[in-house]
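To whoever picks this up:

The nightly regression suite flagged Multiple inositol polyphosphate phosphatase 1 as changed. Nothing in the input moved, so I suspect the structure step. Input below, exactly as stored in the fixture:
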Amino acid sequence: MKPLFNTKTLYFWLKDPAESIPDNQFNTLNHNGQTCQLEGLNVLFRHGARYPTIKWIKWMTALQIKLASDSKVISRYPFIKQWSNPFPETKEGTLSRVVEYEMLRLANRFARRFKSSLQGNLNHINFSYTHKNRTQNSYKYFYEGLNETLQTNTQEPNAKVDDEKLRFYDNCHKYNVEVEGNDNTTTEYEAFLHGKEMTIVIRKVETKLGFYNLTAVEVVVINQICALELGLFNKSYWCRLFDVDDLLVIDYLLNIEDYYEQGYAYPINWKQSCPFTSYMFKRFDQTVSAASLQHNKVPQLDISFGHSETIVPVYTAFGLFHDAEPLRADNFDVNKVRTFHGAIIGPFSANLAVALYKCDGNSDHVIQMFVNEDPVIIPGCGNTVCGYGDFKNFYSKLADCNFDQICQNDPHKPAFG
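Regenerated output under the current build:
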């Protein structure tokens, strides 16, 4: 079964954990016949694999009770009667044990790719995370992995909570009104949820169960049980109720939701991310303007741990994964091959890295971007490598940030606190 479960996809379902990573693969860059040396790096991670939130846990338990009361269902799928929700409410939203593997492996891969910039000293890295335990623990495992790979035994730095930079969506009035509080945001989602493609999936699942009273939401709940059990425990009998075509339909449904809440449907989705993007530009500007900074100096590094709601708006701000056709309820077939695909761009532990290099022979600085460790074409210049001046000019709106003005916040009310 193809493991496509939108943002509940495991990182190492998409990447080969046994892949051989060359030392210093991205520490230097060959550009226009010149060797360019890393001088600045900003990396944003989504937290690792977690348990579902309380809403989903309650829905899962209620669904099992409903199905277990039907003798025909139990005769076909005895496991449903015996199934006990493996996601206790006390663990809602917390990290699973899978995250240790994810983050340790990612740290190992990261340390190898940028080895000479990290070797012997991790104290020059600015680490930040949100107030949520799942981001803080993702950081701890990642930092542990860096130390293990590089054998630095560095004293742990003073990482900090930075909700202003990483949970901007919590404090943006315009976003809360126009997106989260707007019934129109869910129009396309609801239309697809009750449309022909999802109806076919529902009928197929009902036929398998011999139970003809399932709602569309309950089928999505089964999908979430399948995704999370398969990801966290490597096995789920609930997955037997779907085939690959079913998964693709539900995956598109969930992509529609993300497209309208975090993607290109509303400009405020990306505009509100400027606390993150403006900080990145500020740090890079400092590096570029520091006349005393030479190649033998330690690069300026920032590593942050946020959420799906952090990284997807930042992707959108940079114009990444912008398809010709918007995701709508009526164009599933057109968008089967799309770039705004949550399972691929936003799985657990997804990451976006923006690297600043200085080239030999002149004072030119260039930018390269990586999504989930792979270089990507930068929409602003149409290449995988951009001159920093051109990069900043194209994304000038991301470099300046009047958050309260953008979000139409009350000037007399603190935006964060």
